Amino acid sequence: MKNLPTLRQLRYLVTVSETRHFGRAAEICAVTQSTLSAGVQELEGLLGTRLIERRSRRQVVFTPLGEEIVERARAVLADAEALVDAAQAGSLPLVGDLHLGVIPTIGPYVLPRLVPALREAYGGLRLFLREEQSANLLSLLNAGRIDAALMALPYAVGDLPRVELATEEVVLAMPENHPLAAFDDIAVEKLESETMLMLEDGHCLREHAMEACHLTRSRGNEAFQATSLSTLVQMVAGGVGVTLMPSIAVPVEARPGSGVVVRPITGARAARTLALLWRPASPRSRDYRLLADAIGTAITGALSDAGRQLAGQRKEAKEA
Hints:
Elements: H1 7-19, H2 22-29, H3 33-47, E1 52-54, E2 60-62, H4 64-89, E3 96-102, H5 107-121, E4 125-131, H6 134-142, E5 148-153, E6 162-168, E7 170-175, E8 186-187, E9 196-199, H7 204-212, E10 222-226, H8 229-237, E11 242-246, H9 250-253, E12 260-266, E13 272-278, H10 285-319
Keywords: Activator, DNA-binding, Transcription, Transcription regulation
Protein name: Transcriptional regulator, LysR family
GO molecular function, one term: DNA-binding transcription factor activity
């Protein structure tokens, strides 16, 4: 029988690959640096080949074979975790560790409602959260580094299992003293004459908003690109321009006192559908559907608050 690497040795190797630093890898693995280094050396001895070129304490370079072994190690670790997940899934719902990825234009508006509810309903669940743009989330999901991803569709996600949670409209956010704030609804054609502030490339909301409102990349009036929706809103409040916002963000970003008001856009299609996705081979599909129920409740609450807030802003505009 062949001598096989231990899961601990494989974990050490993968963590060094992710950090490119023995010291940081040791901290993540909760061991001393000498223990981690010895574990990697034992793995190299077992395999009979050098995986890492130790050029200096600060420079860690993997050999080509080392990079291949890292990918195989990730797959082995993912299978081992799936084995544990399968055992847990057969007992109590939503127990143990669960790594959830979420895009930045959903996380701030859903997680503060979701996390306390999950803690109360599922005391045995340990939820780990990671915020990334859609492309990175899919890579992490397919590599087994997160268990599920909360994203916005349409997006090229292949045949991943999913639960579609809600479809929301894009609304126009503008300074509270903007001339368009006097209207109940804003025709999409009126956006052509406005200074538009948008998220930078890579954010799926940018693509959804542009498609929904029939905008093109060649717009001459796109004056600013930001890395976050909150930054855009601050620019809007400062009178720099207007932006497009998902309804789910309204209770936070256009709250009273923010200096920003929102209005629906007529002639535009609903921008995006929020969905929870996971890997086809995962044994925890029951857990993910329970998680989807909890997320759906949080989203419904945010959208209900958004509707009330929009109605209140319209009423104030008529009374002014």
